[in-house]
Amino acid sequence: MRPILILQTGDAPEDICSRHGNFDSMFLRMGGLDSGSVSIVHAAKGGDPGDPAGYRGCIITGSHSMVTEPEPWSENAADWLRRAFGKSLPLFGVCYGHQLLAKAMGGVVDYLPGGQETGTLTVVLAESSSHDPLLEGFPPRFPVNLAHSQAVVETPPGAWVMAESERDKRQIIVYGALTYGVQFHPEFSGGVIRDYLDLAARGEPHRASEFRALLAVASETPLAVLLLRRFIAALPAA
After folding, report:
1. Which residues of the chain fall short of a pLDDT of 50?
2. Which of 54, 80, 90, 148 suits 238 as a labelling partner, its CA being 20 to 30 A distant?
């Protein structure tokens, strides 16, 4: 059986890695994946995924890089995503991966007005989401874990927006059959987002009270996890 590709676009901070593992480990755990069923290619370290036909599907991770500050590896990754989409490879971009996929498909990424959106916050589904196979049966509002400074500010041509938050109008973008971008982090457990908020509070003491308030309501996000697992379950078996 062909593997699922985890296209890694960065690394979690050392404090996070020591407690929860790197981004690839988070996806294995929250996606219910066995390490033998995946191929991990670290694009940010120069890894080349090769022919998209060698995979059943692809998950693109988050990163602490910025899509608006492109590096050679990210331009190569965007080119690969365009080729993969053209060959109908199922894609699931998360945070930076969501933004990079949008850029690859002709959208625009920029800094989120008002600054970083972090913590366990609510997204609201579009009415059309009830017809989407991965979102079928979801409630109109549900919590997700967020940690981002940039966002998709112009939707790529031919794509559909399926969810928004109070500050980011493009939390889920659907490009076609089994090609999704999500700004939130289904791979983040409640413990991961709490540790991110704690790091933020220590890194920006002038905003510590704001981050502490967010930390108090940080939680697990089972429906975000379900969306990831539905994507994985829908991938072709061969």
Report:
1. none
2. 80
